[in-house]
Amino acid sequence: MIKTALVTGITGQDGAYLSKLLLKKGYNVNGTTREISERKLWRLEYLGLQDDVNIHVVDLLDIVQVQGVIRSIRPDEIYNLAALSSVSESFVSPAVAMKSNVDAVSNILEAIVAIDPNIKFYQASSSEVFGNPTSLPVSENTSICPVSPYGVSKAIAHMYTRFYREYMGLYAVSGFLFNHESELRENGFFLKKVVSDIGCIAAGIKDELIVGNLDIVRDFGDAEEYVDAMWKMLQQEQPNDYVVCIGKGTRLEDIVQYVLDCYGVSPNVVVRSDSLTRPNEIYKNYGTNDKAFKQLGWMPKNTIFEVIDRMVKFDQEKSKAVK
Ligand code: NAP
Fold first, then answer.
1. Which residue is catalytic, options 77, 128, 181, 225?
2. Is the CB of 85 inside a 6 Å radius of any atom of ligand 1?
3. Which of 56, 179, 297, 309 is the most buried (most CB within 10 A)?
């Protein structure tokens, strides 16, 4: 039987890769966006999927619209990826983060209860819910203690998800994903910015790369591999939450150096600015994927440096095409 999926935030990095995976598995793939525009569809176009997915314009903050799309599609699985996904942006607009990242989740869960409690639900949670952990690596048992508006919103959304699982009997799970990157990453995120700015410096278009604290350690992986963990989480006998990560921390400084080397650019272009330091910085964070490996059989293969190679190649091909 052909399964039907609904992917909110289908125009984003993970939405595009998840659509690719689900189509490969034979799903009927539907997605939501707040508005359709050429600019937003570029990832689906890049992967050649734009004609194979059905896109619905839905305001997830409006329960009537959420119920409408779920009623019309009757999905077997809902992947809730739509969110204000930038931690930095959440410091600028905390109320937007809270509304977008929490209300949509409660609307979808309520709609599932009302329409069909057999629909399985995946919530895109984040390692940011753990804040500055007192011990590493982070696991599913680490205390939830977010330190950014984004982290708080994802923590509340996770608790809603757990409530609907434990008390309403839904198959509803959270994936606590650590940073995952790719050539499809939204502009403005650290790694995308580093690759793009150093590429521009190499091309003589920019003079410097402005950065915040490069002593920070993060766990980075390959977005295309991480969406497979999302899918696996909805295929289990029992619903459960999982940490999804590489299991190793990398210093931001090492990442910058690697990209500089890729382009043959001198480290002298790197300029530190306090303006890029967050009010509540998480200095060191990495996780363990033991549970995901044991229960889901999920294990990442690519290191972040392999992902960077792809990102650099993508940018170089894009600039060749522009010339
Ligand atoms: P993304 O590229 O930013 O995509 C998210 C999508 O959500 C956007 O394409 C956008 O779609 C929609 N969106 C943006 N702002 C919104 C708002 N204020 N309200 C409602 N919808 C909004 O993010 P991603 O990297 O694919 O991440 C997918 C999900 O995983 C997000 O929930 C993110 O928070 C979470 N996550 C990501 C990472 C990571 O490292 N990438 C790590 C942990 C968790 P439209 O404009 O078309 O509506």
1. 128
2. yes
3. 179
CATH topology of domain 4-180+220-244: Rossmann fold (3.40.50)
Could you confirm whether domain 187-218+249-286+303-322 is CATH 3.90.25.10? yes
Q: Boundaries of CATH 3.40.50.720 in the chain?
A: 4-180+220-244
Specify whether 126 is catalytic: yes
For the chain, residues classed under CATH 3.90.25.10 are: 187-218+249-286+303-322
Strand 172-177 and strand 77-80: the pairing is unpaired
- C-alpha of residue 82 to centroid of ligand 1, in Å: 5
DSSP string, 40-71: GGHHHHHTT-TTTSEEEE--TT-HHHHHHHHH
- In sequence order, which residues have a C-beta less than 8 Å from that of residue 110 and are 6 or more positions away? 63
Q: What is the DSSP letter of 179?
A: P
At 220-272, the pLDDT tens digits run 999 999 999 999 999 999 999 999 999 999 999 999 999 999 999 999 999 99
Point out the catalytic residue in the list 100, 126, 148, 174: 126
Residue 39 gets which letter from DSSP? G
Is this structure's pTM higher than 0.70?
yes
